[in-house]
Amino acid sequence: MSERKHDLTVEINAPAEEVWKAITEGEQIVRWFAPEAKVEPGEGGSVWMSWGAGMEGTERIRIWEPGRGLSVSPGGDSPRVVDYILDAGGDTTRLRLVQSGFGAGASFDEEYESTGGGWRIFLAMLRFGLERRRGVEARNVTLMRFLEAPFEAVWNGILGPEGLGLAGLVTDLREGARWSASFDGLAGEVVRFPKPGYLCLSAGESLLSLFVELGWGKTILTITWVLFGSDVARADAIRARWESLVNGLFPVSEARQP
Q: What's the sign of the alpha-carbon dihedral 101, 103, 108, 113?
């Protein structure tokens, strides 16, 4: 097994108790990660998550230390492990995430790259929710498409004039900077932009994250809205609007499931 792993740390202005709930309670996980989640707590328990039909998965809980640490793995022959380590400091918590178990061969390259970018966005979403929207009603609206189009076409398409219509070049966007789009007059702040293919934006009360990744020989487009407050009531309309946009950019004939 290879030595490569992801080792990421984020400091969150929230007590460890709240961070622990965010990573171990199904109704809290949906506020920053998967749109559906259920947890059977305790060592030997499980975490089930789903991004839609055919995209479900169950992780077995290896370590369960409330307020301190959580470790999950698919179990069986899989070497993959994700560890969450909490270091409390009053009203601030340092959360360290370590994912290991990647193979050394080139066949693992896409998974390694996509999880590295993905975790940076998900941790930003976790911090945003805990620091800015704690206790506010939320709903996760996620769309996922497996496309035949190349990465560049999907990334540029979703951000370009026929998609979001972002003002200025995406490569000039900086975390904390203001952004605006021609699509639906959306505007807000750049929350996280680690590299092309991964972008997290605040938009009004809510949070929009875009993922363009490679896998199963296709380009995977995932759009996640975590809607907060008054935006929750518009969830169905927002989903329909984005489905229309994506279907217009990438006709159904171009989309395939893995």
A: positive
Q: State the residue range of the domain holding 206.
A: 138-253
Which tokens go with 236?
């169905």
| Farthest CA pair distance, the chain | 53
Q: What is the pLDDT of residues 26-38, one digit of tens each?
A: 999 999 999 999 9
Do the domain assignments include residue 1?
no
Instruction: Report yes or no on whether pTM surpasses 0.85.
Output: yes
pLDDT 10s digits, 56-68? 999 999 999 999 9
Is residue 24 domain-shared with residue 142, that is, in the same domain?
no
CA angle (39, 91, 122) in 5-degree steps: 45
Q: CA 56, CA 49: separation in Å to the nearest integer?
A: 6
Task: Indicate the residue type of 122.
Answer: F
Lowest mean pLDDT among 2-11, 61-70, 99-108: 99-108
The domain boundary residue, chosen from 108, 132, 156: 132
Residue 75 pLDDT: 77
The tens digit of pLDDT for each residue in 229-257 reads 999 999 999 999 999 999 999 986 444 44
Strand order in the sheet with 81-89: 6-12, 92-100, 81-89, 69-73, 56-65, 46-50, 36-40
C-alpha–C-alpha distance, residues 225 and 211, integer Å: 12
Helix/strand/coil (H/E/C) assignment for every residue in 53-118: CCCEEEEEEEEEECCCEEEEECCCCCCCEEEEEEEEECCEEEEEEEEECCCCCHHHHHHHHHHHHH
CA 216, CA 257: separation in Å to the nearest integer?
A: 9
